[in-house]
Design goal:
OB fold (Dihydrolipoamide Acetyltransferase, E2P), single chain, 3-stranded antiparallel sheet
Amino acid sequence: MTVAPVKITATDDEGPIHRIQGRVQGTPETIDDMGVMQIYGLASHAPVGTDATAMFVGGDRANTVIIATGNQKYRLRGLKSGEVALYSDEGDFVKFRRGKIIEVKAQEELKIETKKLTIQSDEIAIKGNIELDGNLSATGRVNWSATGGGGPSAQDEDRTRE
């Protein structure tokens, strides 16, 4: 036997190689210290209970590598043919959708940290409150459509400022 399905029973992602303990499905066998093979640039830490595929190099149970993992409980459903997604067990995801759409969902917070952020778009729509810690510069028109602290008065509503 060179390949077998396993169920992850413990994980250790502290060292240079992500390691798991797994129970070989259909047998009473549990194997410790199996290395998880990951694709460069992508990293994951599958939770306990995840299904995995173990490859026993040269048929040797002491030389085992996990080559794939999948968790049916958290797997995203409803993707169309050709769509790709990154996701977590908490419901966060990045989906590359048909129609050239990228959809991002963060359940609590989306944090972007960079020296400079440039967004180029024909239209930007933001729903919700905006907090700005710094200066705001605008070229073109600034249209006031509602009042708020420090903004225009009620009589200035819907007035364009230049």
